[in-house]
Amino acid sequence: MNSQVYIHALRVQLLAMSRLSQRALDYSVKGYELRNLDFARQVDTANEDLEQHYRRIRELCREAVNGGIANVSDFRFAFAALSVAAALRVTYSAAVEIAQGTIRLFESKGIERCLPLEKLGQTVNAWMRLCIIALFERNAGHALTVLRNEKEAVQLFELRASDSRSQRTAGPQESFERTVMEGLAEVAKQVHEMASSLLFWLEGNRMSPVISITDVRYLAREVPRAPQEKDTALYIHSKQGLGAKPSQSFSC
After folding, report:
1. Which of 181, 189, 241, 15 shows the shortest CA–CA distance to 197?
2. Is 239 part of any domain?
3. Is the N or C terminus of the chain more exposed, i.e. has fewer CB atoms within 10 Å?
C-alpha cells in the first residue's frame, strides 16, 4: 500500500474507535447526571470492538512507517494516530469505571444530585467532542480551544467541599463523587494529550507529550530510517496540571 492508502485506513479505524470512546464517555456522564441506569449499563458493551480497532491502528501505524511515507505531514499523522488511539482507549476505560460506580451506588441507595460534578462531566465531554471534530475536520482551532481551557479544567478539579460532610468519614455518595472526579480527571488528561497530538500533526511546530518510548520502539521495530525534520521531535515535558489525580470531594 502507498502512504495515502495507509492514512485513509488509519482515519477509518480512528473514526470507529472515537465513536465507541465518545459514546462510552457520553453515556457514563448521562448515567450519573440523569441518574439513569440504562445509560450506565450501555457503557461497557464495546470493549472487544474497541480493542480490535486499537490493535489495527497500531499495526497500520507500524506498516505505514515501514512501508515508506511520502511526506512529513503523513509521518506526523502516523505518530499522532498512535497517541490518539491510546488516549481513546484510556478514555473508554475511565468511562467504564464511572459507569460502574454509578450502577453500584444507584442500586444500593440512590445517587444525590451534584451540580459541580455534572458541570465537570459536561465540560470534559464537550472537550472530547471538540477533539474528535478537530481530528476529522483537520481543524487545529478546535484543538487549540481545548488546550486554552486547561486553566478552567484545573479550577474544576480544585473544587473543595465546604460543608460538614467534607470533615467526616466519606460515605457512599462521597466515595462515588471521588470515583467520578478521578475518572473525569483522567479523561481530561487524555483529551489534553489528544489535542497536543493533533496540533503536532496539523501544525508541525508543536510537539506531542504523549508518544511514549515504548510506542516509538514499536513503530521503529523494522525501520532503518525515518524522515528527519526539526519539527518532528517526539518528546517534550508534559504539562502537569491535568495529570494529578484529585483528592477532594464535592459538596453538593
Report:
1. 189
2. no
3. N
- State the Cα–Cα distance between residues 243 and 192, nearest whole angstrom: 10
Distance CA 196, CA 189 (A): 11
CA distances from residue 78 to 6, 29, 66, 102 in whole angstroms, order as listed: 9, 31, 11, 36
Which tens digits make up the pLDDT trace of 51-64? 999 999 999 988 88
For 1-5, the CB contacts below 8 A with 24+ separation are 1/63, 1/67, 2/67, 2/70, 3/64, 3/67, 3/68, 3/69, 3/70, 3/71, 3/74, 4/70, 4/74
Q: Is 243 domain-assigned?
A: no
Model's pTM, two decimal places? 0.78
User: For the chain, how many structural domains are there in total?
Assistant: 1
In a domain, 240, yes or no: no
C-alpha 57: how far from chain center: 16
Give me the pLDDT at residue 51, please.
97
List % helix, strand, coil for the chain (3-state, nearest 5): 75, 0, 25
Q: In sequence order, which ranges of 109-236 are alpha helices (DSSP H)?
A: 115-137, 140-148, 150-157, 172-203, 213-219
Q: What is the CATH number of the domain that holds 135?
A: 1.20.58.220
- Does the CA dihedral 203-209-210-212 come out positive or negative? positive
Q: Which residues of 180-218 are buried (b: 16+ CB within 10 A; e: fewer)?
A: bbbbbbbbbbbbbbbbbbbbbbbeeebbbbbbeeebeee
Host domain of residue 31 = 3-224
Q: How far apart are CA 201 and CA 206, in angstroms?
A: 8
